[in-house]
Amino acid sequence: MDRKNVIDELKQRGFVQQETDPEQLYELLGRESTTFYVGIDPTADSLHAGHLLPVMGMAIMQKYGHRPIAIVGGGTAMVGDPSGKTEMRKMLTREQIIENSKKIKKQLARYLDFSDGNALLVDNYEWLGQLNYIDFLRDIGCHFSVNKMLTYETYKKRMETGLSFLEFNYQLLQAYDFYMLYKKYNCMLQMGGDDQWANILAGADLIRRKEGANVYGHTFPLLATATGAKMGKTESGALWLDPAKTSPYEYYQYWVNVDDRDIKRFLLLYTFLPVEEVEDLGDLRDAENNLAKTVLAYEATRLSHGDEQAKQAMISSMAAFGERIMPDHFLPSSRIPRGSLKISEKGIPGGEIKKEELGQALLLVELLEKFELIKSRGEGRRLIKQGGVYVNNERIADTDAKLTDKDILNGKIEIRLGKKRYFNIKII
After folding, report:
1. No. of H helices and E strands in the chain?
2. Which residues are catalytic?
3. Do 378 and 309 share a structural domain?
4. Residues 64, 207 within the same domain
5. Residue 352: which of 341, 363, 360, 364 has the closest Cα?
């Protein structure tokens, strides 16, 4: 285990909002390997960027030798957490929850090492699904004060719009999770977003009352971008980790287009690059800022989708917006390819094609597929039929349109897909 205390790095990177008994928790995490947990309710079949901060926090904890438990809340998802919601969540069936959980577990495995029990995946339906309601009320419910619960911000807000008795039970169930994890796995710490603070306190209090033990809570900040937008929200909705919902290219584009004010903060939160290297970015401006965005986008995409998809997304981005050459000295710990990026198996430097290939009358959909601007030629033909493909600012109507050297303007061919995706194909 690294002898540096993990709390020091979490603070440096911006992962600390509130903690119970901070001095005692610091001592515990510096002294011994500690089991901790973060809960994720499988209300969708994919994680999104809003989940990433606690997931990255878990990964950092694991790097320091602590053991994560990822609770995929198959039981609590059937109730619905009212935290941060103005209305009741959509109710899911047990079958939907099971399918969602399977997909989420695969995504978590990109960030956490589950081999040899280094991390655990646990479904709280294991104990919540077996509860006898009368016994639960007598054994657990007696330790909760309704008056106190109604003072918490989560419930106060929902009282204005309506709070179901079903949701009112959520805090008891989450507290019971912490209690069961303490008994089964000696789990000493719950971590979560700051909107979970009241629930975390309730769990720690229940363990103290039932077991006479002192356990701990830690919350991460609830993030917004520098413009005030909710983290991970795009014009088309959430930024999903599932490539079928958000393509690796779209995922990359989200990060490469962040506000300049967010670059350093997001590199600290959403990559594993050393703090010392990221700190050096504080005084960067203009072109170097764009290089830092490229590193952020590449590292974030690599973590979620792998090295090859990150390279392909970077190639497509450079084809559209121009090549960025990464100096060897720039953020040396990043795994981003240095110099002029090439994909050897395709033989295409980003955004370039040989003139003689156009002389053979290249199919437009073939070119789009070659640069991975579309997933298939069929998709390209459908996009043309819908009027969404432009060459040199002229809409293409023929699904079998071909490009020739007559389409070259100023040494390049300009392509637009839809309203906002622009690509410049350089001719060599």
Report:
1. 19, 17
2. 43, 48, 51, 85, 89, 174, 195, 230, 233-234
3. no
4. yes
5. 341
Q: Residue 90, SS3? A: coil
- The neighbour count for residue 218, using CB atoms within 10 Å, is 25
Instruction: Give the Cα-Cα-Cα angle 372, 249, 108 (nearest 5 degrees).
Output: 125
- Note the pLDDT tens digit of each residue in 191-249: 999 989 989 999 999 999 999 999 999 999 998 888 888 888 776 788 999 999 999 99
Residue 228 located in a structural domain? no
List all residues 6 or more positions away from 103 whose beta carbon is below 8 Å from its beta carbon.
45, 46, 242
**What angle in degrees, to the nearest 10, is found between the helix axes of 6-13 and 263-270?**
150
Domain shared by 159 and 214, yes or no: yes
Q: Is 341 among the domain residues?
A: no
Of 317, 259, 320, nearest in space to 292 by CA: 259
Within a domain: residue 1? no
Residues 284-333 have pLDDT tens digits of: 777 778 889 999 999 999 999 998 899 888 887 876 666 677 787 888 89
Where a domain ends, among 336, 369, 396? Answer: 336
- Vertex 43, ends 41 and 45: CA angle to 5°? 110
* DSSP assigned state of 276: H
Q: How far is it, in rounded angstroms, from Cα 248 to Cα 382?
A: 21
DSSP label of 46:
S
233 phi and psi angles, rounded to 5 deg: -95, 135
- DSSP string computed for 320-365: HH----B-TTSSTT--SPPBS-EETTTTEETTEE-HHHHHT-EEHH
Cα torsion 49, 38, 308, 13 to 10°: value is: 70
Domain carrying residue 412: 351-427
Domain with residue 246: its CATH number is 1.10.240.10
Taking 3-state DSSP, the helix, strand and coil percentages for the chain, each rounded to the nearest 5, stand at 50, 15, 35
Q: Is residue 381 part of a domain?
A: yes
β-bridge partners, 412: 409, 426
| Predicted structure pTM score | 0.74
For β-strands 394-395 and 389-391, DSSP reports them as antiparallel
252, two tokens: 């990359």
